[in-house]
Design brief:
By secondary structure, this protein is an alpha/beta fold. The chain has a domain of 178 residues: NAD(P)-binding Rossmann-like Domain (Rossmann fold, 3-Layer(aba) Sandwich). The protein contains twelve helices and nine strands. Helix 4 links the parallel strand 4 and strand 5. It binds NADP nicotinamide-adenine-dinucleotide phosphate (NAP). The site of NADP nicotinamide-adenine-dinucleotide phosphate has 26 residues, from helix 1.
Length: 293
């Protein structure tokens, strides 16, 4: 397998959780010329001290796009958190990569990315995938499944209230630890060739009843699963204070778990990171502090 460890490699969004982990993995795997792009270089002073080249990069700022991609051979474009603006942001980054002569782009997408009106946040990833496929660049689209860390958003609340709300008919979600997904992306940046779309998953689908049981185990409290219809789940989220658009996106994720899109299991983590993905139960058991234990 060819390894591009001597090539100039750019990671965008390098001060984010995912980007930083990807940069660390590149260093750990012996990459010689790592370039970290971020809107705020001051956050990456520690990486600069370790030999990483830091460049200011803001997908909303065309001038930074041109300088950040200059001389880069391969780039990991980390999807932004700018929901609603992401197609424009990420398409601008892809165009800048093309103009700068980048050869290969790895992009962090989402499971079952598609243009359906009810696809939640997936449509933005889909249109970014289309832009990348049309760019003429080599590409590795990594459809990162739900981070295991997402459970820290609703798990502690479920343990406190004793109720976990989900959808009727849930068929499970193959949660992947963020570090496994980041190591996978770094591995793809170092080795992937050609044009592929690959699902980055944990080792097994996890249903809501299993989540409830694990939340109970780590919190020491009783947690009952309450399975609802989509409209009722959304109404409950809005009543609890979530903005309507965000509630809709969360329900869309759960609908994709009902249709089976989130239960896919692949060996992509091991293929690119060289390690087996962490089991969901093992992840949750390391998070007892978040559950008050
Ligand atoms: N699979 C999942 O379950 C899941 C869950 C949450 C998020 N995600 C996606 O995965 C991405 C990485 O996750 P994370 O945990 O690292 O999120 P995070 O820590 O919130 O990071 C947000 C990222 O967005 C980047 N960003 C925001 N605005 C930008 C701009 N104008 N130009 C360039 N980059 C910009 C940030 O880069 P800088 O601050 O360094 O500029 C940072 O890398 C998220 O942005 C989101 O698209 C996936």
């Amino acid at each position: 397998m060819t390894t591009f460890s001597n090539a100039p490699l750019l990671v965008t969004g390098a001060s984010g959780n995912f980007g930083r982990l990807a940069v660390e993995e590149l260093l750990a795997r012996g990459a010689k010329h790592v370039v970290a792009g971020t809107r705020d270089p001051s956050k990456l002073a520690d990486l600069a001290a370790r030999g990483v080249e830091i460049r200011r990069l803001d997908f909303d700022d065309a001038a930074t796009l041109a300088t950040a991609f200059a001389g880069i051979e391969r780039a990991l474009i980390v999807s932004t958190d700018g929901i609603g603006k992401r197609v424009a942001q990420q398409t601008a980054a892809i165009a800048a990569a093309k103009t700068a002569g980048v050869k290969h782009v790895v992009y962090t997408s989402a499971p079952a990315a598609r243009p359906d009106a009810d696809a939640g946040l997936g449509a933005e990833h889909f249109w970014t995938e289309v832009a990348l496929a049309n760019s003429g660049l080599g590409f590795t689209i990594l459809r990162n499944h739900m981070y295991a860390e997402n459970n820290l958003m609703d798990g502690p609340g479920a343990a406190a209230s004793g109720q976990l709300f989900g959808l009727v008919g849930d068929r499970g979600t193959s949660y992947v630890a963020r570090i496994d997904a980041a190591r996978t992306a770094a591995g793809a940046l170092l080795t992937a060739e050609g044009n592929t779309v690959e699902d980055v998953t944990g080792p097994a689908p996890v249903g809501n009843s299993e989540r409830a049981a694990l939340f109970a185990e780590v919190s020491g409290k009783s947690v009952t699963l309450v399975a609802l219809a989509p409209a009722d789940l959304k109404a409950g989220m809005v009543a609890s204070g979530l903005p309507e658009g965000f509630a809709e996106a969360l329900v869309a994720f759960q609908r994709d778990a009902v249709t089976g899109h989130h239960g896919v299991v692949t060996s992509v983590v091991e293929k690119y990171s060289g390690r087996k993905p962490q089991a969901f139960a093992d992840f949750i058991r390391t998070q007892a502090a978040a559950f008050g234990n």
